[in-house]
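Example record

One chain of 70 residues, shown exactly as stored in the release files.
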Amino acid sequence: MGNVLWSVIWLIVLIVVGFAVAFFCAGWYVVIYPLTVCVPDISAVSDFLLLGAQFAHFCAKSMMEGKSLF
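Predicted structure tokens for this chain:
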């Protein structure tokens, strides 16, 4: 029964936070990533934005597996 509860919590996190973070980071990732060719030092920023863009996937995967938040 605990897995169902965690899945519902992950669904709420996905809807409330996950999509917003992913959309925000994906937009900036599209802008910043081509600039890494000219300025290699901003690759750390683009890597962080990629993680943010994949946050919705992480939430959905955790929801399906019923993982706890921590």
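Notes: The mean pLDDT is 93.
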